[in-house]
Each structure stands twice: as structure tokens, then as C-alpha cells.
Amino acid sequence: MSNYPTVTGRRLIKALRKIGFKAVRTKGSHFFLQHSDGRRTVVPVHAGETIGRGLLAQIMRDCEISLEDLN
Please, are residues 30 and 45 in contact by the beta-carbon 8 Å criterion? Predict the structure, then answer.
């Protein structure tokens, strides 16, 4: 099993924006991101907390990206 990096919600959103995702809306502390080809995901942004590796893996599956794409 590969090691997932520890990343905050804001930093993950910044990385996804570089790939082509845009924040379409927010609901509380959850950002809904969508790509122009239809891929979409939800990223929670909680102050002082990192995203767990299980949730990060699910977001990467939703976005159809790999660890290399994320870096």
C-alpha cells in the first residue's frame, strides 16, 4: 500500500485547481469541485485538520487521479 501525504483541505483544493477543477459551490466548510469533463468531488476544509488517508483516497478516485498527478 502506498503512503498518502498528509494534506489540508485548502492545500488539496489548490492542487486540484492546478489540474483543472473549479469550486462550483460551498456548503458550510465543504467545497464542491467540478472539472470541465464532468468529474466532481467534495473537499472538507476544517481549520487545523488534515484530510485522512481514506478520504484522500476516495477524493482521488472521484477525481480519477493518481498520487503522481496530485504532486
Answer: yes
Axis crossing angle, helix 53-63 with helix 9-19, rounded to the nearest 10: 20
Nearby residues of 64 by Cβ (< 8 Å), 6 or more positions away:
39
Q: What is the CATH number of the domain that holds 46?
A: 3.30.920.30
pTM to 2 decimal places: 0.88
pLDDT tens-digit series, residues 7-19: 999 999 999 999 9
Nearest to 69 by CA among 28, 16, 23, 7: 16
Torsion region of 16: left, alpha or beta (phi above 0 gives left; psi -120 to 50 gives alpha): alpha
The boundaries of the domain holding residue 58 are 7-66
Length of the chain: 71
